Amino acid sequence: MNRLTPEEFKSTKKLPLVVVLDNVRSLHNVGSVFRTGDAFLIESVYLCGITCTPPHAEIHKTALGAENTVEWEYFSETLDAVSKLKSHGYTVFSIEQAKGSILLPDIELDKTQKYAVVLGNEVKGVQQKVVDACDGCIEIPQYGTKHSLNVSVTGGIIIWEFFRKL
C-alpha cells in the first residue's frame, strides 16, 4: 500500500504546519488530530493546558500509533506555544468564528512560509487571549442549523486544506 515506515516518516519532508490544541478535553479528538497529521505529514502537534499527552490508551485507540510518528510538545499555557511559534517565524491562526475572520476557502497561503493553527476546547473554543495573540482567525463556512464542528472534524478539514494549498 506504499506506506512509510515510522523511520521513513521521521525523515520525510513535512508540511510546514503545526497544529495547536488549546485545552482539548477529548482524547479521541487528540488521537484523531495525530492520525490526520500523520496522513498529511504535518510538522508537529502542540498539546496545551488540559489536553492529554501520549502515551495514553484512549489517544492510541484513535491515533493508531500516529502519536509515535508525529512530533509533539506539551505547553501548560497555550500562549507560550503561540509565542514560541511566532518567534520561530510561523504565522499563527486561530480556527474560530470571530469578527474579521477569513473564510477557509478564501485563505491564501504562501508556500515559502510556515503556519500554525489553533484548535480550541470542545465547549469554549479557542481562549480569547489566544485569539488575540494570533495573526488572524480562519472560519469554516457552515450553512445548516449548527454553527460548530467537532474538533477532530475541524482538524481534518483545516489540515487537508493547508495540505492542498501548500
Topology:
Elements: H1 6-11, E1 15-22, H2 27-39, E2 42-48, H3 57-63, E3 71-75, H4 78-87, E4 90-95, E5 102-103, E6 114-119, H5 128-133, E7 136-139, H6 151-165
Parallel strand pairs: 1-2, 1-6, 2-3, 4-6, 4-7, 5-7
What does this protein structure show overall?
It is a single chain. This protein has a single domain, classed as SPOUT methyltransferase, trefoil knot domain (Alpha/beta knot, 3-Layer(aba) Sandwich), CATH 3.40.1280.10. The chain is globular and about 45 Å long. The mean pLDDT is 97. α2 packs parallel to α6. The protein has a seven-stranded parallel β-sheet with strand order 3-2-1-6-4-7-5, sandwiched between helices. The relative contact order is 0.21. The chain contains six helices and seven strands. It is an alpha/beta fold.
Order of helices and strands: HEHEHEHEEEHEH
CATH class: Alpha Beta
CATH level-3 fold name: Alpha/beta knot
Q: Using DSSP, what is the number of strands?
A: 7
Could you give me the name of the CATH homologous superfamily? SPOUT methyltransferase, trefoil knot domain
Report the span from N to C terminus.
24 Å
| Main sheet properties | 7 strands, parallel
Overall pLDDT score = 97
Strand pairing plus helix content: what structural class?
alpha/beta
Catalogue the unreliable spans.
none
Specify the oligomeric state.
single chain
Main sheet: strand order? 3-2-1-6-4-7-5
Q: Percent of residues in helical segments?
A: 25-40%
Taken from the alpha-carbon principal axes, the silhouette is: globular
Treating each run of at least 4 consecutive H or I residues as one helix, how many helices? 6
- Number of structural domains: 1
